[in-house]
Amino acid sequence: MIDFDLDKHDINHVHFIGIGGISMSGIAEVLLTFDYNISGSDMNASKITEKLMKKGAHISIGHHEDNLNHCDLVVYTAAVKEDNPELIKAHKLNIPIISRAEMLGLLMKKFKTSIAVSGTHGKTTTTSMVSIILEFSNFNPTILVGGELDQIGGNVKVGGRDYFVTEACEYVGSFLKFFPQMGIILNIDEDHLDYFKDLDHIIKTFEAFAKLIPQNGSLIAFKDDPHIEKILQNINCNVITYGSNNGCEYWCNNIKFDSLGHPSFDVFHKDLHLGNFQLNVPGKHNVYNALAAIVCCRTLGVPIEKIVKNLKSFHGTHRRFDLMGTFDEITIVDDYAHHPTEIKATLEAASQVPHNHLWCIFQPHTYTRTKALLNDFASSFGGADKIIITDIYAAREKDTGEIHSLDLVQEMQSLHENVTYIDNFEKIATYIKENAQPKDLILTMGAGDIYKVGKMLLDQ
User: What does the entry list as the binding residues for ATP (predicted)?
Assistant: First the structure.
């Protein structure tokens, strides 16, 4: 186990393989703030790598063994394979090597209260809500979020050493390397089946995460989710439940939506009415994300009136129902949803926004997810009037030829009259330009680069 101390600098030069990733870059930026010597490599230059270079990091584009110069520690992302030349050289030189999750876990140990937000869906939004409430309640948290949050100027903000707020991703069991004092479990669903054997494996992994929380710590859990309720009896720390009814410690009701789909709702702690809360992000799913953030911040001692005010000031992170702009009275919104549950929730949120036709332009994310959840994907677009499916975004995977977007379209055709396959973004933009009507709502959706379609339309 690496002994890492933010202040001692026994390890001073840290090299990141895959430094352009949202979490890797955040960790690197924290270390730069503490005057560490940071280098790293990534396959592509980006705004993230440019920002790190301006802050003093040495960035190499492309992976090569020569990028590894006299470093004390190598951190790698999950996308890096064993044949990576920098990883191979680090092994040869006996340089200590740890994963991104291990490095994040080491950082968490250096803060008095580390808050880890987990769940198959909603991590980025809930982490951002917690962060904004704490930040503008003068708690001065250090923040690592998996998206761009304008109110902190990006995906990371280095504050004091009392509070550390971060997402806790379950993929490859990453969050089992963490040291949370407070944990949140938003939901448990089937996903990442290229790693997990089945749903039971996923549930047990979340249970193992919950057991990391010390006895004097707290687990905030969404009791409406039967998979979460199943594990609560085995947890030794303080468990605080939230949900939609008074069988939970914290609960909400009287949910209403304004003309933009933004909800308001009442929150209760047992029988005590805490107040009415208003959000500036759409969708019922965000009511429960917000409720988790409310419970977290109240448990940490934030006064209710500040939670109400700061939660209302939250306008979302990039790529989470992100209003990109309008053209010819047609509105374009982009969203990161890439799982059937997320698609349904996002389309439900979109249905609350006044529109003529609702278009959904979906880019499936990874071959394994598309294949494993094909039937669920096919039935998740009921809220859309017109659907365009484009090619699968490979991400970390290789195309084995077992699954294609046309397979998804075929499954969908018995359920939807207006589903079309279009293989590239330029053709999609042209099709929309020729067929969309004033007052239509265009929703680009997926965890890849489908947002480029919206940019094309607006640039035209």
Answer: 119-125
Please name which of 20, 17, 22, 76 lies closest in space to residue 50, comparing C-alpha atoms: 20
- State yes or no: 119 annotated in a binding site: yes
In this predicted model, what pLDDT tens digit does every residue of 203-237 receive, in sequence order?
A: 999 999 999 999 999 999 999 999 999 999 889 99
Nearest CA to 114 among 143, 146, 79?
143
0.90 cut: is pTM over it?
yes
**CATH number, span 111-312:** 3.40.1190.10
Report the C-alpha gap between 320 and 306 in whole angstroms: 24
In this predicted structure, what is the pLDDT of residue 1?
63
Q: Is 434 a catalytic residue?
A: no
Q: Is 167 a catalytic residue?
A: yes
* Structure confidence at residue 7 (pLDDT): 79
Task: Establish whether 207 is a catalytic residue.
Answer: no
**Catalytic residue selected from 29, 86, 135, 167:** 167
Q: Mean pLDDT score of the chain, rounded to an integer?
A: 95
Tokens of 178: 């963490």
Mean pLDDT of 147-164: 93
122 is in an annotated binding site: yes
The C-alpha angle with vertex 179 and arms to 175 and 183, in degrees rounded to 5, equals 70
| Number of other residues whose CB lies within 10 A of the CB of residue 182 | 23
Is it true that 13-101 and 322-459 share their CATH fold? no
CATH number for the domain running over 13-101: 3.40.50.720
DSSP state of 393: B
The CA distance from 427 to 42, in Å, is: 30
| 26 vs 40: CA distance, rounded Å | 13
Cα separation, 389 vs 408, whole angstroms: 8
Q: Is there a contact between 347 and 377 (Cβ–Cβ < 8 Å)? A: no
- Measure CA 416 to chain center: 29
Q: Which two tokens stand for residue 396?
A: 């970390």
* pLDDT confidence tier of residue 274, bands split at 50, 70 and 90: very high
Supply the DSSP symbol for 450.
T
> Is 221:241 a contact under the CB 8 Å cutoff?
yes
Beta-sheet strand order (sheet of 386-389):
322-327, 330-335, 441-445, 358-362, 386-389, 419-421
- Please list, in sequence order, all residues whose beta carbon lies within 8 angstroms of the beta carbon of residue 214, skipping any fewer than 6 positions away: 181, 237
pLDDT in tens, 110-144: 999 999 999 999 999 999 999 999 999 999 999 99
Return the CATH superfamily for domain 322-459.
Answer: Mur ligase, C-terminal domain (3.90.190.20)
Of 124, 341, 368, 370, the catalytic one is 124
The catalytic residue among 77, 86, 102, 123 is 123
193 band by pLDDT with thresholds 50, 70 and 90: confident
Q: Please state the domain extents for the chain.
A: 13-101, 111-312, 322-459
